[in-house]
UniProtKB/TrEMBL annotation:
Residues 1-25 form the signal peptide. The keyword Disulfide bond does not apply. InterPro entries: MbnP-like_dom. This is Copper-binding protein MbnP-like domain-containing protein. The keyword Iron does not apply. Keywords: Signal. Residues 35-248 form the Copper-binding protein MbnP-like domain.
Length: 273
């Protein structure tokens, strides 16, 4: 009798396990079906949320605050756990992220094939091909017209986009003619058109680890990426506002670009249930 009841109890446990397992089986992925995915670029300063006008301290021990922080993200690629790669059509793959504009920090990619994506790759800046295209091919955030979205992010004298721009105030920076102690970092350079010049184009791949961004028809997962502005001023080269208050198209800009590629880190993903 005891054996009979024990057998029934084991059978019930097995059936319950199989039932739960069956309930958790996801519908088959169909790459012909399309969904969306959002990349959320969350700007921070160390352990704090970045806020323009708020005081922070760089690796050189200098206090500062920012009144501008923005950067280009382009040429986005997504890769699935089974190594399928989705390349966002290039004409749709240029974005300007601004700290002052929260909407710009959410990049939603449409018509993405269904899949479990575990890495994202992007360019920090604007590739050389697009830098040198006719202006008619540079629209949206690349529009360099007087009222264009790229105003202030393009060197007309140097014919190239500024990839990352940070401006602010530090008491350690030398005083300018107006008495303000400003620092300005306008970092760009795509390698040159007719002759070789500075190339600060950087590519970043973020691995989601064990996580998966589950793109499905009608669902939109959100990949949370943190961008630590303090890492722009630290790394292989610690940047001092006192020594280098203004860096634009100069050899030293290479050091800052080598730093800021490490600003970007994967944090977590939200999958719609």
């Amino acid at each position: 009798m005891n054996f009979k009841y024990s057998f029934l109890a084991i059978l019930i446990v097995i059936c319950s396990f199989l039932s739960c397992t069956k309930a958790q089986v996801e519908p088959e992925i169909d790459p012909n079906r399309k969904g969306e995915i959002t990349l959320n670029f969350d700007n921070i300063a160390g352990t704090k949320d970045l806020k323009l006008g708020e005081n922070y301290t760089n690796a050189a021990g200098e206090q500062f605050n920012l009144d501008m922080f923005q950067y280009y993200i382009s040429n986005i690629k997504l890769k699935t756990e089974d190594c399928r790669e989705y390349v966002v059509p290039q004409d749709e793959s240029y974005f300007l992220v601004k700290e002052e504009d929260t909407k710009s920090q959410l990049i939603t990619l449409k018509n993405v094939p269904e899949g479990n994506y575990n890495s994202v790759t992007f360019t920090i800046g604007v590739d050389s091909l697009r830098n040198t295209m006719d202006v008619s091919k540079r629209t949206g955030v690349l529009d360099i017209g007087n009222a264009g979205m790229a105003k202030g992010m393009y060197w007309s004298w140097n014919s190239g986009y500024i990839f990352v721009k940070a401006e602010g105030i530090s008491s350690q920076a030398p005083a300018g003619p107006d008495g303000q102690r400003k620092f300005r970092y306008h970092i760009g350079g795509f390698g040159g058109y007719s002759s070789k010049t500075i190339n600060n184009i950087k590519t970043k791949t973020l691995d989601l680890g064990r996580d998966r961004a589950k793109v499905r028809q009608g669902k939109n997962p959100e990949v949370h990426i943190i961008v630590d502005v303090l890492k722009m001023f630290s790394g292989a080269t610690n940047i001092s506002f006192a020594t280098h208050p203004t860096v634009m198209f100069s050899p030293f800009s290479v050091n800052i670009a080598a730093n800021y590629v490490n600003m970007f880190e994967y944090h977590h993903v939200h999958n719609e249930q």
